[in-house]
Every structure is written in structure tokens, then in C-alpha cells.
Design brief:
With 313 residues, the chain is of the alpha+beta class. The protein has three domains: 85 residues, Uridine Diphospho-n-acetylenolpyruvylglucosamine Reductase, domain 2; 134 residues, Uridine Diphospho-n-acetylenolpyruvylglucosamine Reductase, domain 3 (2-Layer Sandwich), CATH 3.30.465.10; 70 residues, Uridine Diphospho-n-acetylenolpyruvylglucosamine Reductase, domain 1, CATH 3.90.78. It is built from seven helices and 19 strands. The strands form six sheets. Strands 6, 7, 8, 11, 12 and 15 form a six-stranded antiparallel sheet that branches. The chain has a four-stranded mixed sheet with strand order 1-2-5-3, with helices on one face. It has a three-stranded antiparallel sheet with strand order 16-17-18. Strand 6 and strand 7 form a beta hairpin. Helix 3 runs antiparallel to helix 5. The structure holds uridine-diphosphate-2(N-acetylglucosaminyl) butyric acid. The site of uridine-diphosphate-2(N-acetylglucosaminyl) butyric acid (EPU) has 17 residues, from helix 5 and helix 6.
Length: 313
Amino acid sequence: MHRGNTMNSRQQEKLTGLLARPVHWQCRLDRYTSFAIGGPADAVVKVESRLELQALLVFLLDEQIPWRVIGRGTNLLVRDEGFAGVVLLLDGEFKTVDRPSNQNVGSVIVRAGAGCSLRQLAYRCMEWGYSGVEFACGIPGTLGGAMIMNAGAWGSDMSAIVAGVVLMTADGEKRFDRRELDFSYRCWHGFAAHLGCAVVAEVELALQNGDPDMIRQQCEALQDRRKKMQRCTYPNAGSFFKNPANDSAGRLIDASGLKGLTIGGAMISAHHGNFLVNKGGATAEDVVRLMHVVRAKVKKDSGVDLEPEVHFI
Ligand code: EPU
């Protein structure tokens, strides 16, 4: 599907001049999403530093150009028409994890850039003997993405370990303390008000000192359990629906006999009902049609309204 660039040549030139790295114009987003689905964005850019990010946010605001940070694109369905705007990938200093110099007995605050992967973060904390991030070691996204959706697994989530967050807007940066942040299951409510104007730049995590070997064993055990339950070989976006209270979306979809159901290139995983997968060549429309079928059937059979966990752009 082809859609012309909505940025004019002056804007394109200005954008290029703001960044250390080359801009990818009319860049398909299927390469940047774990679903391997998505039409082109006007531009995809890698941002290396807070200085660069701030200048970029000022430009985007002045020119009224829509933008989104997409992390590793692991919880995302991008429409087939693509995104008329600029997609930001946080790189460089946004991928660092700082080892704290001062440690209180028992606990520690780790500061990490929003662009670092949860896997990398969990690995660093494991090496240093900091416990708390183990639940996240098999979650494939970035720290910033995990933060805005309060990602979780195994009965824990980001809200349990976040001590603070730094947001950046065109006006500069601002730190929010944990007490100012309102989370619920798979949701950071307050972020909705910042969507499209603020970027999560850094997250502070409150962790406990622990034994590196024990932490490693815990991470490995959780990753093994995850692999056994999910066993997904096709591209996917993780759990597609949020779990309803006291139940599991996967169990309900399974109970409705929907595993293996296919529309176009999109299929409900034969292994786990809550995984919608791209069997090859799936379009976003295939996935959305499949999603509607699942919601209608589960509603009819169990009376439950399933709500997507996946974000849409
Ligand atoms: N089940 C079925 N059939 C299925 C799938 C699951 O009967 O097709 C049953 C299982 O046997 C189990 C129950 O449903 O008794 C729960 O399944 P599972 O242990 O796989 O957990 P889940 O509720 O589907 C949640 C998170 C996962 C996280 C796991 C482990 C949500 C929506 N999903 O899955 O998170 O990895 O627990 O903690 O909260 C993600 O968010 O992307 C994600 C993968």
C-alpha cells in the first residue's frame, strides 16, 4: 500500500539536520514490529541523546508532525496504511543501565534508559546481584514500553519495582516520583495525558541486593516455563488480550474452540489461545478481523468482553 510522504521537503531537510544518524524515509514498519506487520511511516529515526531528543520534540511540535516511540515494537499492531508521521527509536544513551555507586544495605536504585531491552536490563541486574527484575527477563520489549503498559508476568509487574520516571517533552525533562504514578493491571493511567507529547527517557528501579546465582536460576526457571506455555514460532505480539479479572484470556479462547482459527495470514496459535500469530503475509486487517471474531465468540460463550493488551497505531 503506497501513501506519499506527508512531510514537505523543508521539513525533511530540517529533520535530517537535527539527527546524527540517517533518517529512513517511507520506511515499512513490519521490520520494526515483532508481529512483522505494518505499512510505512513517513520517517523512522534513531535518537541518540537527550539533547537530540529535545531538539527533535521542539521541531515536531512546531511543525505539528505526529510522532510515536515504538520501542522494540513487541506489543504493537501497525495498520497496513502505515503511520503518517515520525517513528522514534531510542538508541545510544537511552540504552544504558547505570550501576549505582551508593548502596543502602539491602536495597538499591538502578537508573536505566527507556530504550534498553528488558532482557539486557535483567541480565545486568543478575550480574550485579540485584533482585526484582526477574519476572521481566522473558518479556521481549524495552523498558520504556514496559513502563507505559505496566508490563508484567508471574504475578509481578513494573509498578512493583518503579521508583521514579523521567519524561521528556519539548519543554525539557521532568522527574515523577513513584507516589505520583497511578498503575493498574497492564496500564499506567497517567501516561495517556502525555501520549504524543512526552517520551519516557529514564526509569528508576528500586531493587534488592541478592545472590547472582539465585537470581540467574530464577530467571532461567521463569523463561523455561514461559517457553513451555507459549511455544510460539510465528511472529506475534505476545498476549493479545488482557486477562479478565480472575481468569485467563488464553483459557477462554481455548474453551471457545478457537485455537488454530485462521483469517488470511493471521492465526490463533495452536499452543496458546491468547497468541495471535502471523503465519506469513498477514495484514493488520487480517489480525483485526480475527480479533473481532474472537471477541464475539468469547462474549457469546462466556459472557466476557476481552480487551486488547496490544496497542494500535
Ligand atoms: N490456558 C489454557 N489454554 C490456553 C492458554 C492458557 O487453558 O490456550 C490456561 C493455562 O493452562 C493456565 C491459564 O490458562 O492454567 C493461564 O495461562 P498462562 O500460564 O499461559 O498465563 P496467561 O494468563 O495466559 C499471563 C500473561 C503473560 C505472562 C504469563 C506468565 C497476560 C495477558 N498474560 O499469561 O504475559 O507471560 O501470564 O506470567 O497477563 C504478555 O503480557 O505478553 C505475556 C506473555
